[in-house]
Amino acid sequence: DIQMTQSPSSLSASVGDRVTISCRASQRINTYLNWYQQKSGKAPKLLIYAASSLQSGVPSRFSGSGSGTDFTLTISNLQPEDFATYYCQQSYSMFLTFGGGTKVEIK
Amino acid sequence: QVQLQQWGAGLLKPSETLSLTCAVYGGSFSDYYWSWIRQSPTKGLEWIGEIDQTGGTNYNPSLKSRVTISSDTSKAQFSLRLTSVTAADTAVYYCARITYFGEDKGNCFDPWGPGILVTVSS
Prior knowledge:
heterodimer, A: 107 residues, mainly beta, seven-stranded mixed beta sheet, 11 strands, B: 122 residues, four-stranded antiparallel beta sheet
């Protein structure tokens, strides 16, 4: 199976900051990489698909980049509603796998 | 706007069978694949399996011997059965639609159901 490793596991940031979250795949997955946001007690919500495509309705301050094994989720101008846990997920393999998550907390 | 609603038993004893159902409202059922995912503090988010439009299934190899996913197209519902549960199966279980964006973009889980906490305890 393809292992997905996120870093950092948590970070503290302030409103207005630019935040970068990394995701690394254990093998090349082209751009078959999705990003989700999960708030406490809620189901994950799709933010970015195919590494860089913004899901409809998601604010443009969210962006994704990368291909192969290394990917990045960037949140520019962090807003209060963005404090949550973020997960990457690969769809290259039929055996779908997720990263361990990055919790974005208020500084 | 498609919505998913889930139900099933939330408390099981070891060796019992977990049984959950997910109903799809407001969208096409037969045009999509459907999936079950679970989340626990120890294993994080874990894909359990999926079912396609023809009833074909694909399961996580680590759970394959205990899992069955089925669907009822007439009711726009799909179900999960997990046999011989242990404490390690305690988790929040989500159902989700698999949205396919094309050969060059792959697929993703969108939307998700609200989740059900299933606890396995004697």
